[in-house]
Prior knowledge:
By secondary structure, the chain is α/β, with parallel strands linked by helices. It has helices spanning 10-18, 32-47, 103-106, 136-144, 153-166, 177-188, 193-199, 206-216, 232-238, 245-251, 288-293, 311-332; strands spanning 21-25, 51-55, 85-89, 111-115, 126-129, 220-222, 225-230, 259-267, 273-281, 297-298, 302-308.
Amino acid sequence: MKTGTFTVPTDLLTRIKAAQNILCISHVNADGDAYGSVLGMVWMLRSLGKRATAAMPDPVLPDFGFLPGAGEIVGPDDTADDYDLIICLDMSSADRMGAVYDEPRFGAIPLVVIDHHITNTNFGVANWVEPRCAATAQMLVVLSGPLGIEVDTRLAQCLLTGIVTDTLCFRTSNTTPEVLEAAMCMQRAGADLSDIVRQTLNRMPFSTLHLWSRVLADAHLDQGVTWVTVSQAQLRQAGHEGDDSRLNSILSSINEADMSAIFTEKLGANGSPAVECSFRAKPGFNVGELAFQLGGGGHAPASGCTIAGTLDDVVGSVVPMLVAERRRQLAHTGATPQH
Ligand code: 5GP
Ligand code: MN
């Protein structure tokens, strides 16, 4: 495969090659790329004869139980303290590690970053941040080259899952020839594309349908911005834990909107109200910068943040910001309305 488009930094390669016992961490509210890249990294390291552990802050979602190694992912309470390297995958900032990163135990262990978010804060001692890659899993396909790894079926299944989920099955605007090439290599190495699509994008419990019917009944559209709110009461009524990625696909396909948002009510750690915001933008528009300004991060077309306050407060302050951002981008960046 042609990997010449992307260059793996030498300091990152050197640290990975030298390490023997490695902790691989991915982010809170994990998605398919978080699971695919953290497990893919573990399989790559093990194929080099190293010890490797995958850790995530939240319990593993049943939907991703099909991934090879998913049953071995440990939580914050089950990490050891004798690692000689920590690899952070698919995370734009250190806070995304949640409770898995235990500063007193891990503070002295070198930490490196492999990520594709343009808002990455470069929080490692070595950072490979490649926003031209559509998924962190795509970066690992590249990394398998200089590490001399022969990709087996398990690894291929993990990496293709990350690519498929982050590109919504090759539908996002960042689906370049390099993405397709990486996916093709993983399919040739044994990954089952149709099984991955069936296990990730093409399935949902009835409770999701129930939740969407309630939430979409109250969808809003104002000046090119569409949004919905998801309250804790609606989540409880539907018996649902919330999964906004596919709901976002629906909102971002609305002809009259260039930006969309889902506001999900959360309970903060100390019981105070908070709202998780998930943003999407049509090609030519950017929601990454706004999310970053609000303490979160992401990409131009897809981003998010969590803000303290009630649903009403947060919607009341953030929707006008999205409307203003869209207007500013129409005026200054040459973005054109998509309808
Ligand atoms: P989603 O809306 O699918 O949860 O997230 C869209 C993108 O924004 C993903 O790349 C995700 O990593 C990023 N993102 C979502 N929420 C946050 C957040 O609170 N902080 C940061 N740094 N990134 C976020
Ligand atoms: Mn990703």
